[in-house]
Amino acid sequence: MKKRCKRRSTVYHQVVGLLCLIMLVTTAVPTVMFSHFSRRAFAGDVQNQVLSSIDTVADYLEQHHLPLSDIDELLSFERLRLRILDDLSPLELDKEEQRRLAADGYLVFSRTSGNGLPHAMLNRYKDSYILVQADMEPIFRLSRQTKLLSLLLTLLIGLIAAMIGGYRLLVPVRMLDEATRKVAAGDFTVRIPAPKRMDEIGSLIESFNTMTRELGSVEMLRSNFVSDISHEFKTPLTAIEGYAKLLEGDCSPEERREYVGTITDETRRLSVLVANILMINRLDKGNIPSERHPVRIDEQIRHALALCEAGWTGKNLELDLELDEIYFAGYESLLMQVWANLIDNAVKFSPDGGRISLALHQKGGRVVFVICNDGDNIPEESRPHLFEQFYKADPSRGGEGNGLGLSIVKRVAELHGGEVSVENLPGSGVRFTIFL
After folding, report:
1. Which domain range does residue 217 map to?
2. Which of 56, 100, 312, 341 sits 20 to 30 Å CA-CA off 33?
3. DSSP per residue over 147-191, as a string?
4. For residue 149, is it within any domain?
5. How far apart are CA 88 and CA 84, in angstroms?
6. Same domain, residue pair 68 and 132
7. CA 236 from chain center: how many Å?
8. What average pLDDT does this structure show over 180-197?
9. Which of 431 and 225 is assigned the larger pLDDT?
10. What's the domain count of the chain?
11. Are residues 79 and 33 in the same domain?
């Protein structure tokens, strides 16, 4: 059995319908109220004029000793009929109407049946009564038709204006809908032309364009990250595979030790890469301890130096230490990553027989750590990108490091409310400074 598809109501139809409803209510209600009150006011004016005219003519007849029957000739109104009555019984007046006639000398009343008097005025004159029957319905009918025609014309003009205004109002919404579908399909290059409007829709379009730019940047970073990490894994894996195949063949004990050593180094490199990636992911997700604890910074730095001892002793590097005893409330394991990465970086880029200086002080309520090496200066074009993931200032030394260490240093420093800076020393050498 086929399901019946419901046609989706668009915002355009809803806006136009709402505007038409508002116009209908705001036009019809005042029209009905005005019609009601104007009808009563018009009828009252007619009554007053007729009664005044009857009194005037009656006085005239009395002054000139003319019979009352001549009033019909003196008073001639369109849609008015005058009669002289000596007996009121045909009118079938009730007690209240009789009382009002006796008290006021005139009576205005209506009949919708019986005597067939749609609207009548009764005026007492001596012992007789002047009955004026007014047929105002044609006038009121014409007034109703005119008002109805005006109402329909107003609604028609309003409908056209609502359709045009609704279309112009919702053009940006349609553009947003189409652009959102493209973004959902993975196209982050889509942009909506900036409108010349300072309202909420203009702000929404600006926010959408900002969102797509940010999503495009994130997608580019993700793509670059996948590409970089694939390359970083591929290089050591290729080396491990190659040397493992060499071990399958005939080789001397010296060559075997060399191949095993290379495989061990590349395995260690993969282990460091995985650890750094996990650390980056941990920092991105905010998966860190909830509380800080006092950390002895100078002892941590000495411990990091001990971990890197094989590196700086292998290069016969001279160490110059100036470490004050400082306690700092922080995340111990994360801070250890900072010192280890900076020391490893300094050892890596120092020449054989070079010198590394480390200083730790407290200045202005902040912890300041400075580490210098006398290796080559960093190219100026590379310095702005030095703390980006997988960035290497010297690609020719691709086998050393994976480009994640300094990124971790920067993130951990910022996590502790600090910052990291780098500058070239005159001639040669690089200085990294950490403020916590």
Report:
1. 188-287
2. 100
3. HHHHHHHHHHHHHHHHHHHHHHHHHHHHHHHHHHHHHHTT-----
4. no
5. 10
6. yes
7. 47
8. 77
9. 431
10. 3
11. yes
